[in-house]
Amino acid sequence: LGIAIAPEHIVDWARQPWHVGAPPGPTPRIAAPAGIALAGDWVFGTGLASVIPGARAAATELLRALDPHPTASTPESPVSPA
Q1: 44 — phi, psi (to 5°)?
Q2: Who has greater pLDDT, 16 or 12?
Q3: Environment class of residue 28 by beta-carbon count within 10 Å: exposed (0-12), middle (13-18) or buried (19+)?
Q4: What string of H, E and C letters represents the secondary structure of 18-72?
Q5: Which CA distances in Å does 5 have to 2, 9, 12, 56, 59?
């Protein structure tokens, strides 16, 4: 994405492998610490119709956390649709 991330800036990470034929039911959720938003198919479901809106919601959540009192000129969704 063009953003340099230094190793010391990584607090935690998790890998959720995909298991074909996994039993139905919800995937266990990982609680995210404050300031971290989770995104991906393991959070919002598979397919672009689920993942893209979920990623936009995660980005919006992070931006709102940075500015909890947006001005009237701040758009409702800071991520514009494709």
Answers
A1: -110, -5
A2: 12
A3: exposed
A4: CCCCCCCCCCCCCCCCCCCCCCCHHHHCCCHHHHHHHHHHHHHHHHHHHCCCCCC
A5: 10, 7, 13, 21, 17
Q: Give SS3 for 8.
A: helix
Question: Which residue, among 67, 71, 43, has the nearest Cα to 57 in the 3D structure?
Answer: 43
Q: How much is the pTM? A: 0.48
- Structure-token pair, residue 61: 């959540």
The conformational region for residue 45 under phi > 0 = left, psi -120 to 50 = alpha, else beta, is: left
Residue 40: half-sphere exposure toward Cβ, Cα within 13 Å: 12
